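Readers of this paper often ask what the protein records in our data store actually look like. Such a record has a labelled line for the sequence and another for the backbone structure tokens. Nothing more is needed to write down the fold, since each code stands for a local backbone conformation. The remainder of this section carries one protein's record, kept here as part of the documentation.
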Amino acid sequence: MPVTLAQAKLNATDDIDVQIIDEFEKSNDVLNRITFDDVVSGAGNGATLTYGYTRQITQRGAAFRAINSEYTPAEATKQRYTVDLKPLGGSFQVDRVLNRVAQAAETAFQMRELLKGTSAKFNDAFFNGDTAVDANGFDGLNKVLTGTTTEYLPLNNGVTSGYLDWTAINTQALAFATIAHLDAWLGLLDGRPDAIYLPRKARSLFKVVASFAGQYSIERDAIGRPVETYNGIPLIDPGQKDGSNTDVLAVSTRDTDAGGAGGNITGLADLYAVRFGLDGVHGVSMAGGPLVSNWMPDFSTAGAVKTGEAEMGPVAIAVKKTKSVAVLRNVKVQ
């Protein structure tokens, strides 16, 4: 049965499990929304943790037919994909003397920091994962969307410079011109996205653009926190990568006009619109096992230094339909 973190919490065996899942939910918007299809079985001699699925690449249309003539045959296209599930987490060690200080405060601190790092690593892999760089991870949305029909490039949509300059928007006319590109980008999807993920700087400028168009508002999420929205779609900054202050969705420098006169442009951001679901973007996990596990240090046995661990999965992500997620490339935000 497919599970979310909220459902996994209901099956937690003790207070520690619940606290760990709570930490993932509160600190990670992607993990709070994504559903995991728990179908991969590790049973069998030589079994692999591989999930195979068919991705719908294009949709098919329809046409009127003249009497005494035939329809022109056309088919929706699909392609076979596989992803390998990988465990994600870490371990730490604590001396039993430090564990006795302030009622195990050091052990609690190390576990909390490990959970934060694991959550941030999943976020980073969700967007930036590349098995050619890290064979122990999985491919993220940036790699999956490159070259697809839902990769929106300004250069291919009437912008000769190859980028949308949000830093220069100071009138309603300029804002509406940008809104036209945003709506065209979102129109590539097969339904309303659950969220738009973007860098911090892009989110602040998005607020200006949406305010000019009267489509900016603030709503509350399930935990009660304020969330900025565009036309009711949450605008989410995925935060920083694990173990650093580098943004998961960082700005970059690119040549946006395909080798034209523009040269390299700095301060460019990519925006991702995602529709979560088992027919769209979802996670994959093992059947019959917990989504999140933890092992607290056991100080009841001999040995001065004990090890604690926390682990998610093994997990991976799947994109069942290309049109369930889209990326808007090359938005200048600084």
Notes: The first strand starts at residue 36 and ends at 40. The chain has two domains: 5-141+279-319, 152-275+323-332. The CA atoms of residues 97 and 304 lie 8 Å apart. The two ends are 45 Å apart (CA to CA).
